[in-house]
Amino acid sequence: MGAIVPDLPKVEQHIVEMTNQVRGEQKLAPLKVNAMLAKAARAFAQSVANSGKFSHTADGRTPSQRAESVGYKHCGVAENLAMDGNSAGYDTGALALQAIAGWMNSPPHRANILRTTVSEIGVGVARAPGPKPKFISVELFGQPASKLLTFKIRNIAGVAVTYSFGGKAHDLKPGVSVTHSSCSQEQLIISKPSGIFSGASEIARVTAENEKLYTLKRDAAGAPTLEIATRSTNP
Fold this sequence. Notes:
The chain is α+β, with helices and mostly antiparallel strands. Helices cover 26% and strands 35% of the residues.
């Protein structure tokens, strides 16, 4: 009996569905299929299958460069790559499950599937030449350039403050301004640091928005407070 031959377009579809199922279990938004990402993923899967070179730069380009080559304008790209072989072949569902299981058991690949900074996906699956069934699966994740947000935070309150954004903490000294760019909306948390006789206290907590200016000022009582305005109307 010959090896089982999977339906590759359906494998691609199952991989998308399984990826979104995993994301849903973690309360993350599903990824939408993007035709340009799918085109780039399929081309790379076929290139890896034909060349036998198994790496994210097998064709001499990065995942971002491959996405850009098909016209995908982005503020972030990530890629998962898998190679699965079995002399008996795979049915359609089994091959998709094999690829997803491998990625979920690898921390870097799992992190890509669960990224909060991507909203689109393209999947490509190709069979390598040769008598033994071997398949290359590619997931290409992207965040379109339209999702990029940029904002500015400045401190004219006369006292040092701290703030966190995207899971990273920063110090903001008096008179300092900082511009941030991000591929996703995150919370901006501004706090007054602890002192010798006092603990840290939160000043404000907001979801950062595009083209906003977040200014730390003093209120009537002399305490730091946050003012939010549109950047285009402020220096």
